[in-house]
Amino acid sequence: MGALKKNYEAGEQLPLAGTAARPAEHWSPFDPAWGADGGSEEFPLRTALERRVKAPGERLVLRNRELRIEPTNLCNYHCIMCPREPDQHTRPKGVMPMEFYESLLDELVPMGIEQVTLVNYGEPFIDPSLEDKIFSASQRGLTTYVISNASLLHKASKSAFAAEYETLHGERLTKGKAAVMAGLTQLRLSFYGTDPESYERIMRGGHFERVRQNILDLVAYRETLGRRGLVGGQETLLPQLSIFFLDMEETEGQLEEFLRFTEELCDYVEVWKPHNFGSGRQYRQTQAEQPLRSCGRPFDGPLQINWNGIVVPCCFDFNQEIPLGNVARQTVEEVVRGPAYEALRCAHRDGRFEDVPYCRDCDQLRHHPEALVLTTNPKHARRSNEDIVKSPNTMPEFRLGESGDKVTR
After folding, report:
1. How many Å from the N-terminal Cα to the C-terminal Cα in the chain?
2. Among 49, 96, 272, 273, which is most buried by a count of CB atoms within 10 Å?
């Protein structure tokens, strides 16, 4: 068994390139070392880069089996709790090319990933190749998870998958149907508001009745197919459907109506207080005197790759404040073992959050079990609010740790 196959659960530290923490400016988004432009000379191809990828048996094995990829950071909504406005979302906007995506999967499947979560900071169904990305992952034996506002599910799919399906079966698929047929495992829908007035006031740019009908159509289509699978140990129609709701001033008094409204629409619901997003909005109460603790993500993942290849610590870093590397210029292993990632781990390991101001101000570093208001998610059975908030993963059997250097399994 090679060095990379060792069990690091006992706390043995990975032999990473950088060992000393660097100051906060190490993560400047304008530092060319981390490719803030988001591409190599041959982007979206990775031909030269692929030659540096190690053989599967010698490759780093990621401890967290979930891979998070941002299909796009474009969105057709301007929700009131989102830091997209006013003009806070300033990083480059675009769509991850299919060639780039498939090259990443080819590299990462031997690194142990089992699920691709196609989301970060945008509406995934804006990506015309989203259904192709779902199909490509499914064909590799991976499960897929998408978070959407459901506003575009009725639109005709422009994917290569849908075109081939139409040629074979004579049916033109919508984006929603194409995603289902391509093998989507889980679909989480954001639906904030129980009537047109409240919904459209919160989810600006959306149309309540259109979205409601899209969800009803998807539910009916899923039941017609009757395709079943196991998700989190529970048998369910695929894709498993969930709806998330936010507890905030604008939705006050709507919880009971929301539960009645969604009863026939999905498999489970979750109600959360919105994340603070480092934008000054204090939806989740945190006490300044509370001790800061690592969220665990620098050690445990999951790996988060933005549409242009920039790796960031997590989905809360919506503006690439902490770019850790660029997989258009580096292999995934080079990024994970690189000095920027190791400096972030050192800061979290030693509790020096002043080295990473964006992390220091994040509510995830503070105790806030009240952030989860209600859940009927079967994956949360027999777990406390505190445990769920600390480790709110889409793969239920995985728990974020609080210590150690657990980058590999």
Report:
1. 14
2. 96
332 and 56 Cβ atoms separated by less than 8 Å:
no
Q: Which two tokens stand for residue 166?
A: 């139409």
What are the structure tokens assigned to 227, written together? 């395709």
Report yes or no: 17 and 338 within 8 Å, Cβ to Cβ: yes
Closest by alpha carbon to 238, among 246, 256, 226? 226
117 forms beta bridges with 68, 145
Write b or e for each residue in 43-57: b if 16 or more Cβ atoms lie within 10 A of its Cβ, otherwise e. bbbbeebeeebeeee
The arrangement of strands across the sheet holding 186-190 comes to 325-326, 310-312, 303-305, 66-69, 115-118, 143-148, 186-190, 240-246, 268-272, 372-375
Give the pLDDT confidence score for residue 401 in this predicted structure. Answer: 59
* Neighbouring-strand partners of residue 388: none
| β-bridge pairing 186-190 and 240-246 | parallel
Query: Using one digit for the tens of pLDDT, what is the confidence trace for 351-384?
Result: 888 888 778 878 778 777 778 889 998 888 888 8
Radius of gyration of the chain (CA): 21
User: How far is Cα 255 from Cα 257, in angstroms, rounded to an integer?
Assistant: 5
Task: Provide the b/e sequence for 338-375 (b: ≥16 CB within 10 Å).
Answer: bbbbbbbbbbbbeeebebbebbeebbbbbbbeebbeeb
Encoded tokens for 6 = 């060792």
pTM, entire model: 0.87
Is residue 175 a contact partner of residue 130, using CB atoms and an 8 Å limit?
A: yes
- pLDDT (tens digit, 9 = 90+) per residue, 274-299? 776 555 566 666 555 678 888 888 99
